[in-house]
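User:
I would dearly like some help making sense of a protein record. Take your time, and here it is.
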Amino acid sequence: MTTFMKRPTPANRPRKPRRKGISPWVPNQHGAWAMLISPAVLGLISGLVMFATTGAPASRLIVLLAVLVAWFFGYFAFFAFGLAARARNPRRRARYLRPVYAYGAVSVLGISVALLLQPGLIWWAIPFAPLVVIAVGETIRGRSRSTLSGVSTTVASALLFPALTSVGSASGEVGVTAWVSMVFLAVYFSGTIPFVKSMIRERDNPRYLAGSITYHAVAVLIIWVMTLVVGVGWVAGLLMVATLLVALFRAMYIPMAARQGTEWSARRLGMAEIPVLLLGCAAVLAAVITTAG
C-alpha cells in the first residue's frame, strides 16, 4: 500500500522564525565595549587612588559616579541616535528615538550633578565637545562607521582617564603621567580601527593594510619616545611599548594569514585582542601605581 505525503500548503507550512532587529536599548557593537569600559574602569581606579592620597572631599566619590553615569548613558543615547539617523521608516525612527531621550536625560542628569559638586569640570568641555560634534556630524551624514568617527569616539573615551583622575584629586590637577596614559590609550584604541577594517571592510585593499601597519609602527615610536622623555616609571613604559609592539605584530600577521586562507571571524578577532587589551590595561595600572608611590 502506497502512502502519499501531503505537500504542505502556505497555510500549514511551518514558518521560519523571524530575525529580531537591532535593539536600540542595547548597543550591539561588541568591539566598542572594550573601548567604552576599559578607560572608564582605569580612570575610576586612578581617581580613587588620587582620592585616597590627596585628601579630596567625600563629595568627589559622588562626582566619580556621576561622570561614569554620564559617560555610559551618553554612549547608549549616541548608539540609539545612530540607528535613528539611518532609519528611513518614520515609525522605526520614532522607536529608535525613545532610548535617545531616556538615556540622554540620565546622561544630562549625571553631568548636572558632577558640575554642581565640582564646577571646575566645565573646562573638560573644551576637549570633549569637538569630539562629540565630529562623531554626531559623521552619524548625521551616514558615516557612523567612518575612521574619523571611530577615532573621535576612541579619543573621547581615552580623555575619560585624566578627567576621572582630576575628579579624585583634591586640587583637581592632572599629572603628566595621566596625560601620557591618555595618549597611550588613544593611540592603542585608535589603532584597532584600521586593523579591524583591514580584516573586514577593507580586506581586499592592500593600500589600507599598508596604512594600518604604518600607523602601528609610528605608534610604537611615539609612545617609546614619550615614555623616555616623561617619567612614567620603567615598568609602565616597558608595558606600553610592549603593548604596541604586540599590536603591530597582529596588525601584520593576522591580515596576511587571512589572505593565505586562515579564517578569522569577528568573534575570533575579538578573542585574539583580549591579551593585547589586558597588557595595555596593565601598563596604565603600572603608571597609576608609580604616581601613587
